[in-house]
Amino acid sequence: VKERGRSGYALFDADMEEKSLERILLEVELRKAVEREQFYLDYQPKIDFSKGTLVGMEALVRWNHPDLGRVPPNKFIPIAEETGLIIPIGEWVLREACKQNKKWQDMGYSPITASVNVSVRQLEQSGILNKVIEVLNETGLDPKWLELEVTESVFADLENAAAILEEIRGFGVKISVDDFGTGYNSFTYIKHLPVDTVKIDSSFIRDIHQNVESKAIVNAILTLADTLNISVIAEGVESKEQLEHLNKGGCIQGQGYLFSKPVSNELFEKYFRDSNLL
Ligand code: C2E
Ligand code: CA
Ligand code: CA
Ligand code: CA
């Protein structure tokens, strides 16, 4: 029994060690990735499904490592956040998304909003407002075509976050609360944070057509947002059935595989040319 116990521990240790090695490796590689231009963006369309029109895009970072291949964001973003590497990565994403959006406007496509995910580490970084202004000046994008997606669950200091967001919003940039409804204090957040849009988390959309609770939560969010004059978008819309439920509840904007997965800038351009995306 002892023998087994010991080998059990040994196995456990080896496993732990392997994990931390992978983690160290990713951290080392992540440090080099910005300079070596291993990141690129995919863009997912946001649709007004009352009209079938394109209203915006969400820029999603991708990491293509020469040996490791594609490392998913859920794997490297948390490491980037812990190490502070999210600051240079996030800045790169912001600049690239603004640059691309301006380029599309210059090509003559009707303007859409570029949504960029911003982690709390970035927001709390001193000088974030100046960084945003600098990127907008550099790229020539009008602030009204930029939206920052912030996740509600991560603000340690709500007052501070509200002050920063208020400044950014004062400059004309839109603020969206991502993964809305998943935090413990969702309603407190929209009371205190300056917000233009809430993005209903995909977990509520996933079973909206078969779960009364999810449906009730979505409808409550829609009613609340309507009263507060906040826009709503649904994320993770995958089926016609889900879309119908959203439509019935009065939600008219969405994003998800039903319309398109995130795609390259070249592929995205066809969505500008399609008059009906439904
Ligand atoms: P998120 O902001 O909630 O982004 C939505 C995620 O859901 C994306 O995964 C997207 O590809 C995926 N998705 C879109 N439509 C559907 C659908 O219909 N069904 C399903 N099952 N999934 C869908 P992705 O690109 O792997 O990103 C994962 C997370 O990584 C993002 O979640 C976001 O939190 C983070 N992330 C991605 N890019 C950035 C970035 O540039 N900066 C920061 N700070 N975080 C980022
Ligand atoms: Ca997002
Ligand atoms: Ca989500
Ligand atoms: Ca989300």
Q: Span between N and C termini? A: 62 Å
> How does the overall form come out from the CA principal axes?
globular
Mean pLDDT: 92
Radius of gyration: 20 Å
Number of helices: 11
The ligands bound in this entry are: ligand C2E, calcium ion
The largest sheet is: 8 strands, mixed, barrel
Uncertain residue segments: 1-10
Q: Work out the number of β strands.
A: 9
Strand order of the largest sheet: 1-2-4-5-6-7-8-9
Helix content: 40-55%
Give a description of the structure:
- This protein has 278 residues and is α/β, with parallel strands linked by helices.
- 51% of the residues lie in helices and 20% in strands.
- It has helices at 2-33, 73-83, 86-106, 120-124, 128-139, 158-170, 186-192, 202-206, 212-228, 240-249, 265-273, and strands at residues 39-48, 53-65, 69-71, 113-117, 146-151, 174-180, 197-200, 231-235, 253-255.
- Helix 3 (86-106) runs parallel beside helix 5.
- Mean pLDDT is 92; it is low at 1-10.
- Ligand C2E binds at residues 44, 60-61, 72-74, 77, 86, 90, 93, 117, 119, 178-179, 236-238, 256-257, 262.
- One calcium ion (CA) binds at residues 58, 117, 149, 178.
